[in-house]
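FYI - complex with zinc ion, inputs then prediction.
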Amino acid sequence: MIEPEVLKLRDEVVQLRRTFHMYPEIEFDLHKTSQIVAEYLESLGLEVKCNVAKTGVVGLLRGAGPGKTIMLRADMDALPLQELNDVPYKSRIDGAMHACGHDGHTAMLLVAAKVLASRKNELCGNVKFVFQPSEERFPPGGALPMIEEGVLENPKVDFAFGIHLWNALPVGTVGVRAGALLAAADEFRIVLKGKGGHGAYPHVCKDPVVVASELVLAMQTLVSRNVDPLESAVVTVGKIHAGTAFNIIPETATLEGTVRTLNEQVRSTIKQRMEQMVRGICDAYGMEFELDYKDGTAVLINDPDLTKVVQKVAEKVVGKDRVVEVPPSMGGEDMSFFLQRVPGVFYLVGSANAEKGLDKPHHSPYYDIDEDALIVGVQMHVSLVTELLKGSC
Ligand SMILES: [Zn+2]
Ligand SMILES: [Zn+2]
């Protein structure tokens, strides 16, 4: 259930979310958003640090005595997308839209900070409220630079939690999963360097188009013939470019794509096999190549014991039958870097309402949420911290 004291803040969390929604900012350019966040946290009496990883904000709430330090993370960035919803709080910024729910994440964490600040005498330990820029744009993302700037230190973070509002789940539900929830999302670029010439005289050329075609098909076996069928992996070539005219064999062809995996071993197998395969095929055709493989987000792994705590808290907040175990997904999230360093949980708060038409997928220009989800998120943050920091100190 939602506590009456929290429920009273429903309008406030909705208003905050709408403000962020109307003025979306992207990547690291979150000047207005971070200003609102910092001023709000300062008004609660928290110790506030601004300009962490450019526009990130960190608020520290010290409880009544010593104890663990819990980090709660919200991402604040929007997407470069034109909103097509016709709502009073529609984006006022051309070409930018909160189409992933990060406006809600920011609003929920602010209001949770307000509730927890009013109860700081009941908490043993600290709560670190981390507002992160640039989750959507990776690399570099906002999490790694925040870690480099010391967000997990002083005081040292013991556990980290984060919420994603989730339109694949109905409002009033919470989705959890122990272990791997989201994928390592890597990026690769292959440039094939052949020898261009006339389309009618292929024997005096080295045709990178033929090699690119063979590579796209061959790379499908990176998953089907190299990865245990009970594991999950994706290799997608999303971009392929070569040539300028129908009768010219081009000098080069470029392939770009993504590799998604849910475990580090599978990840390194694919990476290694891709290199061997590109080298082998290029050798066979006498073609030079460059392979640039960039590691993206890490696999996001939820701590099993803390997942049980989240589950127990969620059962109290939304009811036992409304806590669902969600399957892993091949999407990536840079919350994974925090969870690589400290145990914690990233979990989902249902935000869809099909009857109201609020069930469009994330990143759609028609994305919107049932705002009743916001107060559920606030209560989850509050109850989780209370559960972990209660006691006498
Ligand atoms: Zn997103
Ligand atoms: Zn997101």
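The chain has two domains: 4-181+299-389, 184-297. The chain has eleven helices and 16 strands.
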